[in-house]
Amino acid sequence: MYAEATGILVMGELLKSSIALSLLLLSVGAAASSHAESSVMKGSATFRAQVPASKDFEIGMKALDARLYVEAEKRLSRASIELRKTRATEKERVIARLGLAEAYLGMESPSHARTVLNEVRGECFANFGAESAECARFNFAYADLLMQEGKYDAAVKLAEQCLQSLEKNGKPYDVSICRILIGKIQTKQTYYDHAKQSFKAALPALELEPGRDRLDYAEAFYGLAIAEKKLGNEDAANESMKKALAIKDDAVQLDKTDEQLGQVQYDWIDGMPGSRQIGDPLYPFKYMVIDGLRVACTLVRSQKHMAVLISLANCSKKPLAVAVGKVTLEKVNPGRKFLYYCDPAYLDNVLEEDVVLGLTWRRRWFEHIQRSRKIPGYLKNGALDPDDFYGNNVFGIYGAWDTNLREAPPIVTREEFYYEGHKPQADSDLLTFMRGSASSIRPTIIEPGGARTGLVLFLRERYDDAEVALHLGNAVVKFPFHVPAGVGGYPAAH
């Protein structure tokens, strides 16, 4: 018994020693992790800060780095709630909230970003100090917010303050990302010579560290091309834009959504390579070719609605599988506001299509793409000429072309179709993809030389400038539109 008792005592002492050693190792590990650094501002910029022990935080920041903004918003919202439970994680919660604001800025939701940034401002400066990387990151995000809100003077002042801090303590990559933001703001201010210098200064570091899918490097070339174009340097502008578009096309996958892969943004810019249009005083038909897919659209006022007429055509030599995503129409001047999407299940689609066709039929290209027909287009080396709008086409509800082909009703009168049970039912999948839900995409396959065309309707509202954004695969394509002079604040009045 004595031997057993002695053994128990010895085992007890060994257990205590083991526990003490484990606690020591844990404390050392915690101390090491508290000094470990990792990227926290993703996509648009990268600064360094402490990493909290939160799975949602880690996943959210990785999503932000990959430009998966919807996933980042979901994860970082959850992480900020989780980290609120104890004061010991107050600094980590601030970082999570900053990441959440960055996700909103990536999604171009400045109102949500402003709410988060205003809430976290005091906590950020109190916990980290004005000269910290975290506060530089806050200033960067707030400058981006002010730019999106059109407050350019305040935005550039804050971005330059951030740049000064980064030049002292930041890495060359971080400095270059800040210079890109400053260049964008200077372009908005029409200070093109200053913008050119900002973009050129960002290129050397980004050549060595180009960012995820080299997209930060592409952004510098993109901004430089715009500045060169405005300064009249056509050759330099064309060269920079071609480099930017080549990098972006490499990052695009049309059969994936921007919630599965990193978002790649294209902006239609008048006169730049890749940005084309059929000029018209009322209905300018603007188009770009994104990784072999020609994307074209215009705006038409249709009685109580704004109609976005969209055409997607395969200009490659192989079938394209396209994950068709949501369409948004945003008023950008005066003020900013998204127009309300109208569910086609509750509209007289035949009437709306007839109104739009009646307004545009004198333009032969519009008349053609609003019909379903099998007419071979002009193929150049086995691929559709991007400037040819007279080939094969399927016209129908945007994103529902394949469904329309399979479920086309027999020929009936208009009254029978609408009043005897043939009216289309509400399409829940159509609504979810139009509202940006990750639960549904609208896949469609377009054969070489073929096209798909459809209308997307929004409630009409007065504005001077508007922007159409099309989500196609992991690309977001943006088209600006300005109200023609003398049409009373509405685009395309007849």
Number of contiguous helices:
16
Strand content: 15-25%
The residue-averaged pLDDT reads: 81
Biggest beta-sheet profile: 6 strands, mixed
Shape: globular
Radius of gyration: 27 Å
Count every beta strand, where a strand is a DSSP E run of 2 or more residues.
16
Share of residues in helices? 40-55%
Secondary-structure-derived class: alpha+beta
- Contiguous low-pLDDT stretches (5 residues minimum) are 1-52, 405-412, 417-423
- What is the rounded distance between the termini? 106 Å
Give structural notes:
The protein is an alpha+beta fold and 494 residues long. It contains 16 helices and 16 strands. The chain has helices at 2-35, 55-65, 69-82, 90-106, 110-128, 133-148, 152-169, 172-188, 192-208, 215-230, 234-251, 349-360, 364-369, 401-406, 414-419, 428-434; strands spanning 37-39, 48-50, 264-267, 276-278, 285-290, 293-302, 305-314, 320-333, 337-338, 379-380, 383-384, 394-395, 442-446, 451-459, 465-472, 475-482. The strands form four sheets. Strands 3, 8, 9, 13, 15 and 16 form a six-stranded mixed sheet that branches.
Key structural traits:
globular, 494 residues, alpha+beta, six-stranded mixed β-sheet, disordered N terminus, 47% helix
Write the layout of secondary structure elements.
Elements: H1 2-35, E1 37-39, E2 48-50, H2 55-65, H3 69-82, H4 90-106, H5 110-128, H6 133-148, H7 152-169, H8 172-188, H9 192-208, H10 215-230, H11 234-251, E3 264-267, E4 276-278, E5 285-290, E6 293-302, E7 305-314, E8 320-333, E9 337-338, H12 349-360, H13 364-369, E10 379-380, E11 383-384, E12 394-395, H14 401-406, H15 414-419, H16 428-434, E13 442-446, E14 451-459, E15 465-472, E16 475-482
Parallel strand pairs: 3-16, 12-14
Antiparallel strand pairs: 1-2, 4-5, 5-6, 6-7, 7-14, 8-9, 8-13, 8-15, 10-11, 15-16
